[in-house]
């Protein structure tokens, strides 16, 4: 693929867009399909999102080398790998996890093209996908979109929202010494930020009308993870954290160099540091957005194979995968679908997918996601 070389490259069976855990994982599963042709393309480097994480955030899902006993490291994207073993840590930093992704890519010799953004995806007369990049065009019979969500931060539509900053920006994590900070949103990223800032001497107020810190349940997609709760208990022992559970932010103004958040309980919260939105992400579908229908909640509508309902051959891998109330937003959840997508693409193309059985016996392939809503009894 090069502007100076006009010879078109052969059409591949599957092109994966995005080299985060969802894309590299999907490519690893595709590699298990005999003779299939595939590749991965990323606008940045392998694990780019993790390299862009702020330096204070760590994984909240623990890594541990339980693979030999059928308990695959929760953050692994291939049954024979373990971030805990490679990185010798249980809660990796973004930089460390990006290193794991690069090592896995190297070990399994995955064909990955870096620094090449996909700008558009369309169909040609042969019903193949045409993938347009700044460096030329590629064609593929199937596309797996694994573009993540980090580049689509969700900012609430309140007056003065332009004065706040989203928690995805490193600057949000770096107030001047001993600052007061208002954090809007109290689920994982809000509490992560509150714990990090209080441990560094700052004073934090978290606003969230749903009081997520009080909700207990066995699905960490809906409640705080044990690690975050543990850190929260430590932060609450300082006198620098206030959790406000009866109010949402209704506006932000700037007055005399101070940011003023007005809340629905009538209180105002005044700080020198811009208020921080820890309000999550939208799905980032980039150049394939027009090829997906949306659910009522705005997330992409998928069939039971994680495929677009309006564009056959276009699959979704990663945290945006949702089926009814099931959110596959963690690696240990969305990795269960890598083998499934590879199996669907492989069998439709007439390839032998027998080797994918290894993913199933390792417990890394759930075919029917409707069975995943079990709660723990204690
Ligand atoms: C702060 C934070 C902490 C998290 N902590 C955890 C955790 O502890 N455990 C856990 O399991 N999950 C965690 N998650 C959730 C989830 O696992 C991560 O969001 C994960 O990065 C998702 O993987 P992905 O491969 O889908 O996306 P990403 O890792 O974001 O990868 C997407 C890739 O697509 C590329 N890309 C995007 N658009 C294009 C384009 N047009 N052309 C080419 N390439 C493109 C990007 O450069 C990027 O490399 C966390 C999420 C966040 C935001």
TrEMBL record:
GO terms for molecular function: flavin adenine dinucleotide binding; monooxygenase activity. Pfam families: Pyr_redox_3. Keywords: Monooxygenase, Oxidoreductase. The keyword Oxidoreductase applies. Coiled coil: none annotated. SUPFAM superfamilies: FAD/NAD(P)-binding domain. Signal peptide: none annotated. This is Monooxygenase. It comes from Hoyosella rhizosphaerae.
